[in-house]
Amino acid sequence: MLASIVATFLAAAAIVSAQTSSLVASAPVVTNNPIGANYNANLPVQTKNAVRGSVVAQSNPDGKGVLVNVAIAGLPLEGGPFMYHIHEKPVPTDGNCTGTGAHLDPYKRGEVPACDSTKKETCQVGDLSGKWGNITAQSLSASYVDEYISTNPADPAYFGKLSIVVHSSNKTRLSCGNFTTIQAGDVSTLKPAGPSSGYALPTGASPTNNTLSLSATATGTGGESAQNPTATPPAPNAPSAQPSSGAQKVLAGAGALMGAAAFAMLL
Ligand SMILES: *[C@@H]1O[C@H](CO)[C@@H](O)[C@H](O)[C@H]1NC(C)=O
Ligand SMILES: *[C@@H]1O[C@H](CO)[C@@H](O)[C@H](O)[C@H]1NC(C)=O
Ligand SMILES: *[C@@H]1O[C@H](CO)[C@@H](O)[C@H](O)[C@H]1NC(C)=O
Ligand SMILES: *[C@@H]1O[C@H](CO)[C@@H](O)[C@H](O)[C@H]1NC(C)=O
Ligand SMILES: *[C@@H]1O[C@H](CO)[C@@H](O)[C@H](O)[C@H]1NC(C)=O
């Protein structure tokens, strides 16, 4: 009796999870970013660790996607690979990173399954390291065009009033910083965007021991040490992706919910 109930549950869960994996919620490509919009998030100097840096994000010159320049340094030798995400809330005034809540996930895709970087539209919008790569050394200097985040305050994927959080692999929040508006941009004026590359890593010693260590020792499981912090960030390239239909999104949302329930039953 019990066995047959369990078997029924397992069969139902298998069907639901098969549906879920083929219908993961998708984020649309953002094409109406105000030209010239420019935001900056600084990771503050802290006493608890030496992590510091910035994420500068500005509308891509054609308004399609956002050019992101990441410069993070001072990561610890232990605890990698490190992840960084846009979170759904700003940093509280006391700087406590816990208060930034969860990842920016306007299409409610959830944490599972893990982001597949070959299908960026299916990842949480705020999961930058899932889409563009973990930090596998003590620093990262990277540039890319993310087509799913937005500099348009009316867009659900708008990050301008939110925050960046850097995590160690066990999810500990190492540092966080608010995005602040450098320029809001102008939808009606098609002026060229500002600087597009060459953001330097933070330098200089801090009041605490913030000596910039450029050791490229990989702490990641992958063992790559390819991220050369002194290298010029690669030229931004626009990933190609197909936005999915609204109907597919609705189905995917329901599928994800059922999948989560099935997953919980299995535990
Ligand atoms: C998580 O990793 C950090 C180092 O990044 C370490 O200080 C902390 O103790 C770890 N926490 C747990 C719960 O393992
Ligand atoms: C982050 O921004 C919010 C407003 O959006 C502000 O209340 C908060 O003080 C800021 N946090 C820090 C650490 O400056
Ligand atoms: C940070 O905020 C969380 C709740 O959001 C709280 O549990 C934690 O104690 C706070 N940490 C510090 C150091 O204040
Ligand atoms: C990135 O690191 C996290 C742990 O920090 C790990 O769970 C995840 O699988 C890694 N992603 C990739 C693509 O290696
Ligand atoms: C500061 O950190 C660097 C490496 O990050 C280390 O070589 C140096 O000895 C440290 N200095 C102090 C005073 O702890």
CATH class division of the largest domain: Mainly Beta
Rounded to an integer, what's the Rg over CA atoms?
Answer: 20 Å
Using the 3D structure, state the CATH architecture of the largest domain. Sandwich
- Strand % is 15-25%
**Shape category:** globular
What is the CATH superfamily classification of the largest domain?
Superoxide dismutase, copper/zinc binding domain
Q: Structural class per helix/strand content?
A: alpha+beta
Task: Describe this protein's structure.
This protein has 267 residues and is α+β, with helices and mostly antiparallel strands. The chain has 2 domains: 1-25 and 247-267, no CATH class; 38-243, Sandwich (Immunoglobulin-like). The chain contains 3 helices and 7 strands; from the N terminus they run αββββαβββα. It has helices at 2-22, 128-132, 246-266, and strands at 38-43, 52-59, 66-73, 83-87, 140-146, 163-167, 173-183. The chain has a 7-stranded antiparallel beta sheet with strand order 4-6-7-1-2-3-5. α1 packs antiparallel against α3. The longest helix is centred in the first third of the chain and has 21 residues, at 2-22. It is globular, with a radius of gyration of 20 Å. Bound molecules: 2-acetamido-2-deoxy-beta-D-glucopyranose (NAG) (5 copies). One 2-acetamido-2-deoxy-beta-D-glucopyranose binds at residues 81, 83, 114, 134, 169, 222.
